[in-house]
Amino acid sequence: MAYSFADWQDGKKPPKGWDGADAVRDGWSKKEIDAFMRATAKPWVPETPPEKPVDERQEHPAPLPAPTPLPARPVREARTTQQARPEQATVTDIRTRVTVKADDHWKAGCIFNQDGTKLKPNLTRNWALYLEHHRDMAGVLAFDEFRLRVMLMKPPPWEPKDEPWTPRPIQDRDHSEAVMWLEMKGMTPKASQIVAVIEAVAQRHAFDPWREYLEGLKWDRTPRLETWLTYYLGVEDTPYARTVGVRWLVSSVARGLQPGCKVDTMPILEGPQGAQKSKVVRVLYDPFYSDNLSDIGSKDAKMEMQGVAGLEVAEMHKFSAAEVNEVKKFLSQQVDRFRPPYGRSIIEAPRRCIMIGTINPEGNAYLRDPTGARRFWPITVGKIDIEGIEADRDQLWAESVHLFKAGVPWWVQEDEQDAVVAEQEKRTDVDVWVDLIAPMLVGRKEIAQIDIIRELGIQAKDADWRHAGRIGRIMKKLGWSAHRDRRSGEDRVVFRRPLSADDW
């Protein structure tokens, strides 16, 4: 643990073996080191020589002269030399014999040759110290934990200094430029290692822009969230709209402040072309917005989700074309596991984004599987006020942060479930087999699965698990339950109608 100048002033003793070189490492300034040395250095006083035997014949021996004290000298640990000009001040580490300028005290951590006169040019430690602390590179490299990438926060020495600078992700050419810059400083970096060294330096200066944005907001205490879908998106004001409106934004905050938390639901904005559904999502989440999504479940899709808080699934085409189980799995994942481009290791990234669908249903049902439909929150938009969203966006998120920290859940509660299910069922496609199977059940209490297959005209030799699963979902929707019938030495699936009052 570092021993600071304030610790010494508070009377705390330095660690055993602590010296001036350690003071430099712990960040002491020249002024603080000088003050410490003046206060703690003790003058050297020679020992008093033993008295010479007195000649007994000498009646009155002459007294010995008192020793003359020598001037005080500082303890020689880390020696600071003050030249005529302040910028010429130097610091010397007596253990390594390395002398550096006081302004470049970080160089004392570099590895030199035995006599301390020359840097060892091929060591990664020396490259890292130069890339982190040299006056031309200090503050340049940082790591964006939200987007999982190295950023150049200030212009590096290979970029023009007199032009406006906007922080940007590091590029392949920057790695080559860094190699050439280190070579100009007398080092011999290996291009194959510089990427890892740069990332290690950047990760010492990590930041999270989405978290910083959310935590930097201050709510003005004006409630907006419960009715924001109605006020800004023209949604009919119902208990359902109020429920999903709050749950939507609070779930986004949860993923921002509690990465990887469970969010397996997805709001879907319904409306005609040109209704500005996509613009709503963009304005809410910009600059942490994207509408780029590859095939779900692919490595590309997992990488595209990094650095995104709101991912628009435009027209739901990616989900409509996918298998129902694949959609469920993709929405339910809390950690994305993949290997980044040029990366040597697989990383596990807790999911930070939520997905928002946009669709023009044109009166058609677009949810296929009743069991998967519970994950979707359909929202029919009216007249959208983009300017109002832009003006109040920060306050919408500020209120969402307040509710999240107050413990408001971001999932549908038991007493809210019926209203949500009713809206979902309106958009759930009815299987065409329902019209064929329902008449078979009239007046029956039990029916075998194989009998349904035969009635549908499917040959027994062609029937497989897909037919069985489809029939099972339809029967469950109709309220019938599946059972195994092993009577008469058989083993078959039968469906039984729930008992009614007439059955008793």
Average pLDDT across residues?
84
CATH architecture of the largest domain: 3-Layer(aba) Sandwich
Please tell me what the overall shape is: elongated
Give the percentage of residues in beta strands. 5-15%
Question: Would you tell me which CATH topology of the largest domain applies?
Answer: Rossmann fold
Count of discrete structural domains: 3
Rg calc: 37 Å
Report how far the terminal alpha carbons are from each other.
79 Å
Task: Let me know the largest β-sheet.
Answer: 5 strands, parallel
Q: At the first level of CATH, what is the class of the largest domain?
A: Alpha Beta
What does the oligomeric state look like here? Answer: single chain
Number of helices: 19
Q: Structural class from helices and strands?
A: alpha/beta
What is this entry, summarized?
The chain has 504 residues and is α/β, with parallel strands linked by helices. It has helices spanning 5-9, 20-25, 30-40, 124-133, 172-184, 191-203, 209-215, 228-233, 239-257, 277-285, 299-304, 317-320, 324-332, 370-373, 386-405, 417-426, 433-437, 449-455, 465-477; strands at 78-81, 90-93, 98-101, 141-144, 149-152, 168-169, 206-207, 266-270, 289-290, 310-314, 335-338, 347-350, 354-359, 376-380, 446-448, 481-485, 492-496. It has three domains: 120-207, no CATH class; 225-426, 3-Layer(aba) Sandwich (Rossmann fold); 433-503, Orthogonal Bundle (Arc Repressor Mutant, subunit A).
